[in-house]
Design brief:
3 domains; 7% strand; 354 residues; two-stranded antiparallel ribbon; mainly alpha; 13 helices; single chain; hpI Integrase, Chain A
Length: 354
């Protein structure tokens, strides 16, 4: 347990390790890199976390260091908190991510009850800012849908799938024509299209960090989910298929076979593209700014009025954590000034593997 009387300063032995016999680098970033390459990676089982940590070290921490040349033995809590403050001035949520990363690093690197481990308690805490979902009124929604329909970027279908089916952005972009069942009036989510972090060494040809988008299957059939699709959206899907066929003829060999959400040059669209256009549409029509995620929350706001079984809401919305699901439902009900009337089978629903 942390004692209030503990001093915030850490001695000059901070960041030293007993087994630093090699030509260890003297700067903090090089020390982080050594930990990442020699201690973290050999024990890692997550390629996505590998890439994320690499990005955190070299794209977030290194550019914001107060003193890039300070020797690692002189790093203390004051220095690390100054680093977090610099990141916070640029992006508050990124500071929260850096805070969590540094705590992982300290906990993994040092033994409890040592001077170095005290840094774990001396870091200033930064938390992710949670903003309320933006929910449109009926009039605002009608205005938005009309504007999106007329917009020449052809993103209306993607926005409609978030609004009427509650699909996540990566799920929408990963859809293929065979994801839909016209007879049943449903869509089944089997995969995602999302950004991958491509990590590499810092030097030479492999020194850059590239960002690529790719599709991938969900881990198992148990992760799949099927949700209803309004009948009118199947007309939109047929129109999109016709449009995509023209794109494929114009740019043969570039398009992913069977992909629904193709851009004008045959590549699958990306989330920044969709959100950027959303911003322009809402600004042009004087509407509150929204993201694709807000359209999904509007779907949930409608769902909790129609569906009273909590487990069914979780299944349709794609949430496995009942605590988060219930909190979000209550948050949306509060925004609308309504009482949440969902039937929650307490406490049975909360007996799940965290």
């Amino acid at each position: 347990m942390r004692k209030e009387s503990k001093e915030m300063a850490v001695t000059a032995t901070t960041m030293k390790k007993e087994k630093r016999n090699e030509n260890a680098a003297t700067t903090f970033v090089n020390y982080l890199e050594s930990w990442y390459q020699n201690e973290y990676l050999p024990n890692s089982t997550s390629s996505s976390t590998d890439a994320y940590y690499h990005w955190m070290i070299f794209n977030v921490i290194e550019p914001n260091l107060p003193d890039k040349e300070r020797a690692v033995d002189d790093i203390d809590a004051e220095y690390l908190n100054a680093l977090l403050a610099r990141i916070d001035r640029k992006n508050e949520n990124m500071a929260a991510s850096a805070y969590r990363f540094l705590r992982v690093f300290i906990k993994d690197s040092f033994e409890p009850d040592t001077g170095d481990y005290e840094l774990f308690f001396q870091l200033k805490k930064y938390s992710v800012l949670e903003k309320d979902p933006v929910l449109y009124t009926a009039e605002q929604l009608t205005c938005f849908l009309s504007a999106a329909k007329k917009d020449n970027t052809s993103h209306y279908l993607e926005y409609a799938l978030a609004l009427y089916c509650g699909l996540k952005p990566g799920e929408i972009l990963g859809l293929k024509y065979d994801s839909f069942n016209l007879e049943a009036g449903t869509v089944t989510i089997c995969g995602l299209h999302a950004r991958n972090y491509m990590s590499a060494d810092r030097n030479g040809v492999n020194g850059s960090q590239n960002f690529k988008y790719s599709g991938r299957k969900l881990r198992s059939d148990s992760n799949y989910r099927t949700v209803p699709v309004p009948e009118f959206l199947f007309d939109e899907i047929r129109d999109r298929r016709y449009l995509n066929e023209g794109i494929i003829l114009k740019y043969p060999g570039l398009a992913e076979e069977g992909a629904l959400c193709l851009g004008p040059y045959g590549k699958v669209k990306t989330l920044p593209t969709l959100n950027t256009r959303l911003k322009k549409i809402t600004q042009s029509y004087g509407l509150p700014r929204i993201s694709l995620g807000d359209l999904r929350y509007m779907y949930l706001a409608d769902l909790i009025k129609k569906e009273k079984q909590f487990k069914k809401i979780m299944e349709l919305f794609g949430y496995a954590n009942p605590y988060r699901m219930l909190n979000l439902c209550q948050q949306i009900a509060d925004i609308q000034g309504e009482t949440l009337t969902v039937n929650v089978p307490f406490p049975e629903i909360f007996y799940y593997k965290m």
